[in-house]
Amino acid sequence: MPEIQENFSPNNFDGRPITNQFMPLAVGNTWFYQIKDPSTNTVTEVDTVTVTDKTITIDGVQCVVFSDVVQNLNNNHPEIATKVTETTNDYFAQDKAGNVWYFGEDTKAFQPGGASTEGTWRAGVSPAGAQPGIIMLADPQKGDSYFEEHAPPVAVDRAAVTSVNASAAVPFGTFTKDCLQTTNTSATPGDVESKFYAPGIGSVLELDADGTRQELVSFNGQTSVAAAQSGVSNLVQAMASFGEQQSGIAPGPTTHHPDNAGLSHVLAAHSHQA
């Protein structure tokens, strides 16, 4: 399996927008996910990820700040997302060749007894020797493998491309043989995930080894082409019209999908905030 070893240099970055087709990180783009417990096949958490208008310079490179907020659903009122269980800021930048690099994260998990920042790392800063990894290749090919996070002992995550024509079905829509699929592993034994990325949209599905599913419910953002043309300044159409424009995508009825019926109020509130 070919090991991708891109040589990191700040000179390979020029502050360009992140337009990689599998990670279109235009400012304002927002993805809304539901997380399903495999033992009950019910939605237990929701996850909102947003490309902010903030930037940060890490290891000599200007990075986009990517916000990720996970909330539990109320057991008595599953239409309400209440308790925030984890917040994370991730830091990404795209090089001149189109590879998207991962420069670190600041994460906070809220637990009984206090918050934990375990998993926080930053390239060139902490822990000692931490290096940026590649979160998405410019031209991924089956068999490619690479480090996403390279900051031992805090974070050592790898990805391997297992398919470039995978399929996935989630509440947002059905994707037929146009997804990138990766197998992701970490230094923790047994920690294995399969991730599916749709062109122009990004991550649509994550499958943990225990069967937990993180499924895309809505996406409000720009395709990578639109982002490049507009300079990431304006959002384009909403989910329904976006889905109609994309080949190989059958948009799903978000608030009427049987697995998502209980999320209608959460999604509506989320849409007003976007």
Strand content: over 45%
DSSP, total strands: 15
What's the rounded overall pLDDT mean? 82
> Could you say how many structural domains there are in total?
1
Order of helices and strands: EEEEEEEEEEEEEEHHEH
Radius of gyration: 18 Å
User: Stretches where pLDDT falls below 50 for ≥5 residues?
Assistant: 230-262, 268-274
Most strands sheet: 15 strands, antiparallel
Write the layout of secondary structure elements.
Elements (H helix, E strand, L loop, with lengths): L29 E8 L4 E17 L2 E13 L7 E14 L5 E12 L2 E3 L4 E2 L10 E4 L8 E7 L3 E16 L2 E14 L5 E7 L3 E7 L4 E7 L4 H7 L8 H7 L3 E3 L12 H10 L1
How would you sum up this structure, described in words?
With 274 residues, the protein is mainly beta. Helix content is 9%, strand content 49%. The protein contains three helices and 15 strands. The chain has helices at residues 224-230, 239-245, 264-273; strands at residues 30-37, 42-58, 61-73, 81-94, 100-111, 114-116, 121-122, 133-136, 145-151, 155-170, 173-186, 192-198, 202-208, 213-219, 249-251. The protein is globular and about 55 Å long. The N and C termini lie far apart (41 Å).
Short description:
The protein has 274 residues and is mainly beta. It contains three helices and 15 strands.
Key attributes of the depicted protein:
disordered C terminus, single chain, 3 helices, globular, 9% helix, 15-stranded antiparallel β-sheet, 274 residues, mainly beta
